[in-house]
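Residues pack. One example:


***
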Amino acid sequence: MIRRFLLSGLLCLSALAAAPALAQDAPTTEAVAEAGVRVALVTTLGTIVIETDPRAPITSANFLRYVDEHRFDGTTFYRGMELGTDIGLIQGGTNNARTRILPPIAHEPTSQTGLTHTDGVISMARYTPGTATGDFFIILGPLTSLDAGKTAPDDPGFAAFGRVVEGMDLVRAILVAPKSPTEGEGVMKGQMLAPPVQILSAARVAESRD
């Protein structure tokens, strides 16, 4: 039940972002793997530091391109889906801004990368596989139902590509921030942050250390 609710919400929201992307170039399928790269998302409430994972090179490279081209600067965390105490996700990024989104990328399932949707993991929002662009979500609590192959052998799941290394307290605060009772469609109604939490800047800070 939780997975159906969560999946439906992610797909509904990402459908809006996917529409213009589908008319662009074919999904990007090549990327050069980098060691884990740390990125600071500076928000109006504080800073969240993300570390990308080289096991998801296509998805990580896409995220870093948005960072390096300042496409996340001035965007927001706009959604908080609460599924229980300290369980759920927050979603942010370009939110279908045509001037910000890049061509969609190929889907990297967790069955390929070996990653899993546990506390602090960052993953790509999408519609169908291969439509992810510039929207992402951060997991709170274990939500491994979003991994590939959980409900059926051909279940593509979502593309995890890193984790939060600093600022989970802020992620939890955003999850429970005030929400509009009327904004959002379908299962997303009541999940849209009011006001959204602004992402002032996103920039590389340091590569990971063992």
Observations:
- The CA atoms of residues 99 and 136 lie 17 Å apart.
- The domain at 2-27+36-207 is CATH 2.40.100.10 (Cyclophilin).
